[in-house]
């Protein structure tokens, strides 16, 4: 008889006691170590970057190569992205990588109760505890993500730019310049249009699927085409709508995170300038990345309290609380992602007054930090096929079906398939046995994702302990159009699976919706299904919104935090509108554009 192994870590009381004892011994050692720490020099850098994720890696590289004679400290709460067995770099293991104990912040969401949209006399619930993975490793989420390369439509960038004349630096033309500068696309024989819209010399490698596609997935494209959905061979081309294959942020079939592409290149620059610092130790012109360094808060200049001048950060590393400072013309740049950047601001006294005061934090500047939490909810159902139709090398997300959804929850019509501002993305994934807990079948998973959601969530501090999780309120489907658009897309997915050859050759049978039999699913059952099965598709943003302060902004068009000095936020949290695609490339784009703004401001300050 085979023994069933536990799939989760279960520690006994005895184990926990032993762990606590070891922690105690470690603490004692740290105290002894502190007593000898008298001769340490004050750490001073031109730029301190908090977080070596997508944005932090791009920024470190662009600044160190763009501005002469600077030094940069990058503080990263996680460790290097080198995993001995290559689990991070192998595309087919991404589904496991983000569940790794020490590479993920391990966030979960709050329970959500609201009135049913179908039957408003009833209350419905989105359960508490939806896992909300965030990378805690060099490369941040780009080291754990599904590697789909998608910029989203021009519209959201142009909306961002329409917030005032000074926001023009964020219009599509400016963003496209950055996307192209970052990208190194290896498509074979690209056509002229592809050449115009893509970059081929950047450090972020993008490629078509390395291993071709399964027959069943190619046939899925035909099934979608049978229903009138146009084929699209470039979701980052002139139009986003249609059915086609994704491109991936891979190099030679392996993950290319922003740490692989950009941080690695940033680390190549090391120069020593003896005697150029007042302390006589000389200046090392380089990027210094400190791993397992958890930033606790911003250090403010207490002599000029009213001005809120950031002068450094306090962080926890190797059992010690340490401080690092910026040079007189330097900056602290928070790149800690859409959950942690707002948390660091709030812990430092920048945020909503009520939530800060509840947590005994002195308010330095009242701003709506943590509001405007935007995300792409996803809901999937599963169809099983004949055995042995699925193999094991796939990265998972193979096919995209991008369309405008129907706001009444009907199957979209032809016009909606051709609409140039699609709002729904369905990812088709080959389902291998074991990919979804308890399902030992071959098949297809169709994951509908609301690319342009109307509902907006928020996050807030639960305590003033920097190691505590903030409370994440997603507010998924709070607006009824989100629910009906999701239902519309799920109905379309069912229709696609009914088409030959899916139903005929592969014997595909839907096993996702269990409430009623056959096609006749009531709206009430659809709502129940959507609320029960929806999860994040890992794209939070917007919590440190770039907008005029009068319009709920936390940072201005140059990403400087209102009411402070020497402080910027550069990452996915600054999006006022969430990109209508996946968020890795857009976040890298934000960092590239920010590096140019920082360069301009630094040069201006130095010429004064
Ligand atoms: C499982 C998963 C799948 C995804 N799939 C895709 C996809 O296929 N395509 C796509 O385009 N996007 C995808 N995304 C989203 C995309 O990767 C992210 O939007 C993007 O990487 C966000 O970049 P960021 O710089 O804002 O934050 P992050 O990349 O999260 O970087 C933040 C960094 O800051 C560090 N940090 C946080 N707090 C502190 C602190 N207090 N002190 C020090 N360091 C700190 C973190 O450890 C992290 O390294 C996915 C994300 C996940 C999690």
Automatic annotation (TrEMBL):
Cofactor(s) required, per the database record: FAD
Keyword line: FAD, Flavoprotein
Protein name: GMC oxidoreductase
Keyword Flavoprotein attributed: yes
Family: Belongs to the GMC oxidoreductase family.
Lineage, broadest ranks: Eukaryota, Fungi, Fungi incertae sedis, Mucoromycota, Glomeromycotina
Phosphoprotein in keyword set: no
Gene3D superfamilies according to UniProt: FAD/NAD(P)-binding domain, Glucose Oxidase, domain 3
Native species: Gigaspora rosea
């Amino acid at each position: 008889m085979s023994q069933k192994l536990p799939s989760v870590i279960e520690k006994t009381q005895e184990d926990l006691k032993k762990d606590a004892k070891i922690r105690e011994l470690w603490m004692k050692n740290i105290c002894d170590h502190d007593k000898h720490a008298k001769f340490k020099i004050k750490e001073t850098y031109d730029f301190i970057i908090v977080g070596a994720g997508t944005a932090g890696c791009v920024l470190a590289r662009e600044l160190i190569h763009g501005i002469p004679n600077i030094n940069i400290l990058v503080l990263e709460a996680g460790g290097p992205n080198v995993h001995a067995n290559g689990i991070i770099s192998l595309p087919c293991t991404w589904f496991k990588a983000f569940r790794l104990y020490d590479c993920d912040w391990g966030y979960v969401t709050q329970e959500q109760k609201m009135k049913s949209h179908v039957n408003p006399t009833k209350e419905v619930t989105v359960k508490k505890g939806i896992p909300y993975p965030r990378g805690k490793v060099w490369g941040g989420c780009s080291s754990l993500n599904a590697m789909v390369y998608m910029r989203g439509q021009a519209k959201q960038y142009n909306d961002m730019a329409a917030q005032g004349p000074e926001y023009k630096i964020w219009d599509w033309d400016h963003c496209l310049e950055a996307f192209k500068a970052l990208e190194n696309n290896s498509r074979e024989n690209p056509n002229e249009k592809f050449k115009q819209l893509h970059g081929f010399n950047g450090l972020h490698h993008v490629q078509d699927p390395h291993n071709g596609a399964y027959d069943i997935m190619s046939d899925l494209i035909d099934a979608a085409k049978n229903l009138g959905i146009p084929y699209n061979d470039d979701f980052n081309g002139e139009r986003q709508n249609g059915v086609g294959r994704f491109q991936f942020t891979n190099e030679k079939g392996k993950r290319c995170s922003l740490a692989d592409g950009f941080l690695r290149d940033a680390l190549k620059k090391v120069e020593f300038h003896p005697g150029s610092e007042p302390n006589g130790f000389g200046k090392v012109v380089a990027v210094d990345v400190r791993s397992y360094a958890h930033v606790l808060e911003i250090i403010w200049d207490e002599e000029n309290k009213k001005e809120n001048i950031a002068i450094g950060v306090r962080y926890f590393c190797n059992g010690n609380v340490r401080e690092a400072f910026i040079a007189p013309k330097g900056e602290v740049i928070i790149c800690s992602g859409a959950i942690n950047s707002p948390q660091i601001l709030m812990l430092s006294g920048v945020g909503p007054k009520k939530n800060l005061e509840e947590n005994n934090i002195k308010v330095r500047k009242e701003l709506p930090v943590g509001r405007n939490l935007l995300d792409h909810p996803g809901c999937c159902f599963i169809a099983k096929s004949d055995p042995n139709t699925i193999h094991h090398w796939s990265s998972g997300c193979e096919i995209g079906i991008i369309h405008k959804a129907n706001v009444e929850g009907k199957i979209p019509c032809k016009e909606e398939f051709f609409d140039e501002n699609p709002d729904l993305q369905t990812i088709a994934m080959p389902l291998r046995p074991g990919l979804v807990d308890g399902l030992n079948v071959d098949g297809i998973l169709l994951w509908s994702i609301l690319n342009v959601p109307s509902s907006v969530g928020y996050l807030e501090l639960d305590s003033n302990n920097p190691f505590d999780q903030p409370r994440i309120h997603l507010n998924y489907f709070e607006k009824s159009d989100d629910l009906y658009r999701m239902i519309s897309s799920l109905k379309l997915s069912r229709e696609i699976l009914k088409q030959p050859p899916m139903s005929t050759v592969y014997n595909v049978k839907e096993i996702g919706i269990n409430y009623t039999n056959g096609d006749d699913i009531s709206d009430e059952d659809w709502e129940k299904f959507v609320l029960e099965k929806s999860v994040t598709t890992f794209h939070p943003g917007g919590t440190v919104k770039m907008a005029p302060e009068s319009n709920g902004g936390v940072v201005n068009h140059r990403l400087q935090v209102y009411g402070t000095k020497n402080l910027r936020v550069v990452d996915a949290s600054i999006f006022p509108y969430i990109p209508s695609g996946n968020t890795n490339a857009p976040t890298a784009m934000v960092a590239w554009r920010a590096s140019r703004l920082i360069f301009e401001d630094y040069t201006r300050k130095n010429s004064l």
